[in-house]
Amino acid sequence: MVLSIAMLGTGLMGAPMAARLLAAGHAVRAWNRTRDKLDPLRAKGAGVAATPAEAVAGADAVITMLENGAVVDTVLFASGAADALRPGALVIDMSSIAPADARDHARRLETLGAAHLDAPVSGGTKGAAEGTLAIMVGGRAADFARAGPVFAALGRATHVGPHGAGQVAKLANQVIVGVTIGAVAEALLLAVANGADPEAVRRALAGGFADSPILRQHGRRMTSRDFTPGGRAAIHLKDMNNILDAAAGSGLSLPLAEVTRALFAALVAGGDGDLDHAALALALERRNAPARIAPTRIATKPDPPPKD
Question: Fewer CB in a 10 Å sphere around the end CB: N or C, the chain?
Answer without folding.
Answer: C
